[in-house]
């Protein structure tokens, strides 16, 4: 049986951001750091300004004279506080995180964007307490929300498993969702349900999506996925390629077993690229099999499986 481990850290897990969590509840320190702080504006669909291979920051004082409740504290770089704020009116040359990943962003930029998007997306749906609808206000630099009676909510992260199914040899199962182009395939994934372990989730999701019973489940690694605020937990598992595929839950349009050589050729062809004028993904050439780009842990898992053979 093929045994492999991730041969590199997934892109969004390589954060070099100093999150400075000890400052979040220190209102005085945040206020003192505000005059020299830098602010990142996050526009529609999580897009940001990116020029000369770097994020475009502005002085935090351009937003307000002191820390704004609309901004979230990201951390510290070289003694300077870093904040982010949603700006739906943001204009200019904008890049989203998927497109930036194809531009080989550095670890600091990856950490800043994955953190900023996850926090901003959480705040967008957390204005009211989940128990009784009581209004809440941002606190601790945007790392919590508090109701009038003191009840506190924290940023929500939704765990999801993503699994490479192999036959123990040189074949791997890849699937395509209905909304994807006919050549786009990836690994199978799904959200963890309440009261469910990660391993049982892998078993259930693989059975629901393609009708296969998997075994020899191995954990590989994880990656934040701020679309809108998930954590992807990577696994590998073995299944019998002789068993019929049954698409029970309707999410999968088709799935096929591919050889290691076929996957190796697909990796050499590149991943998805983004059309700047449309902000949408497009095939990176005329390949029959196209795999996810470098932003996804799916590609790291596939690359590691290929390399192990």
TrEMBL record:
Q: What is the name of this protein?
A: NAD(+) diphosphatase
What are the UniProt keywords, alphabetically?
Hydrolase, Magnesium, Metal-binding, NAD
Q: What is its EC number?
A: 3.6.1.22
Which residue ranges does the record assign to the Nudix hydrolase domain? 155-280
Known catalytic reactions: a 5'-end NAD(+)-phospho-ribonucleoside in mRNA + H2O = a 5'-end phospho-adenosine-phospho-ribonucleoside in mRNA + beta-nicotinamide D-ribonucleotide + 2 H(+)
Reply yes or no: does the keyword Lipid biosynthesis apply. no
**Species for this entry:** Nocardia fusca
Please give the PANTHER family that the UniProt record associates with this protein.
NAD-CAPPED RNA HYDROLASE NUDT12 (PTHR42904:SF6), NUDIX HYDROLASE, NUDC SUBFAMILY (PTHR42904)
Name the enzyme's class. hydrolase
Coiled coil stretches, renumbered: none
Q: Which cofactor does it need?
A: Zn(2+); Mg(2+)
Question: Pfam family example for this protein?
Answer: NUDIX
List the molecular function annotations (GO) for this entry: hydrolase activity
């Amino acid at each position: 049986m093929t045994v492999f481990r991730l041969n590199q850290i997934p892109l969004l897990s390589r954060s070099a951001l100093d999150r400075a969590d000890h400052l979040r509840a220190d209102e005085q320190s945040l206020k003192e750091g505000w005059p020299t702080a830098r602010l990142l504006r996050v526009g529609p669909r999580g897009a940001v300004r990116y020029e000369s291979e770097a994020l475009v920051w502005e002085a935090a004082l351009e937003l307000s004279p002191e820390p704004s409740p609309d901004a979230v504290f990201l951390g510290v770089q070289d003694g300077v506080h870093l904040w982010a704020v949603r700006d739906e009116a943001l204009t200019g040359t904008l890049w989203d995180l998927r497109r930036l990943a194809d531009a080989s962003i550095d670890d600091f930029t990856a950490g800043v964007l994955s953190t900023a998007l996850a926090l901003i997306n959480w705040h967008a749906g957390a204005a009211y307490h989940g128990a009784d609808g009581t209004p809440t206000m941002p606190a601790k630099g945007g790392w919590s929300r508090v109701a009038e009676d003191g009840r506190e909510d924290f940023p929500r992260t939704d765990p999801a498993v993503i699994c490479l199914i192999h036959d123990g040899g040189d074949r791997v199962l890849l699937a395509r969702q209905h909304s994807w182009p006919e050549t786009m395939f990836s690994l199978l994934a799904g959200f963890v349900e309440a009261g469910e372990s990660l391993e049982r989730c892998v078993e259930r999701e693989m059975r629901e999506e393609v009708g296969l019973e998997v075994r020899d489940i191995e954990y590989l690694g994880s990656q934040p996925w701020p679309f809108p605020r998930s954590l992807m937990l990577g696994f590998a598992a073995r299944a019998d390629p002789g068993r019929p595929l049954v698409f029970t839950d309707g999410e999968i349009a088709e799935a096929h077993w591919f050889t290691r050589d076929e996957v190796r050729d697909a990796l050499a062809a590149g991943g998805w690229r983004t059309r700047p004028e449309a902000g949408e993904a497009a095939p990176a050439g005329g390949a029959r099999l196209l795999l996810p780009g470098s932003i996804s842990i799916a590609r790291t898992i596939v690359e590691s499986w290929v390399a192990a053979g």
